[in-house]
Design brief:
The protein is an alpha+beta fold. The protein has three helices and four strands. A four-stranded antiparallel sheet has the order 1-4-3-2, covered by helices on one side. It starts with 9 loop residues before the first helix and ends in an 11-residue tail after the last helix.
């Protein structure tokens, strides 16, 4: 491949992929994955709120604060390794822990992590001034 055949954003994309390597996991392990998207105009959301939510989660678990300009973040939260990524229209949270839960696909396998994320996001959405009945806390 020569320079004329390369896409102008090829190097930026390759560098981004290398900045976010896949996690190294040992079997058996438990994985909890959440993708959160704003209901309206998600691509133009306030990304500062996304990082503020991540910072709140980290503070609750005694983990280091993320950089306010972060597009991705990794930290140990108790027995879970957290991976957070900001995408164009959504954010993702992935938590990995050694061992298997007693019941496969049990939402409580996140050790309260998934419930805490959902409740915290619901509070932030309501604080934004939206109708609280539209986004009930779970």
């Amino acid at each position: 491949m020569n320079d004329e055949d390369e896409h102008p954003q090829r190097y930026a994309l390759v560098n981004e992929l290398h900045a976010r390597p896949s996690p190294r996991l040992s079997a058996p392990c438990t994985a909890v994955y959440l993708a959160i998207k704003e209901p309206r105009d998600a691509a133009n959301r306030d990304r500062g709120r996304d990082v503020a939510h991540l910072a709140e989660l980290c503070a609750r678990h005694g983990a280091p604060r993320p950089d306010t300009s972060a597009g991705h973040y990794t930290a140990q939260l108790g027995r879970h390794q957290l991976r957070w990524e900001s995408h164009t229209e959504f954010v993702t949270y992935a938590a990995f822990a050694p061992g298997l839960p007693p019941n496969p696909f049990d939402p409580s396998a996140g050790g309260g992590l998934s419930a805490g994320l959902a409740a915290s996001r619901a509070r932030q959405t309501r604080c934004r001034g939206d109708d609280p009945d539209r986004y009930p806390a779970r």
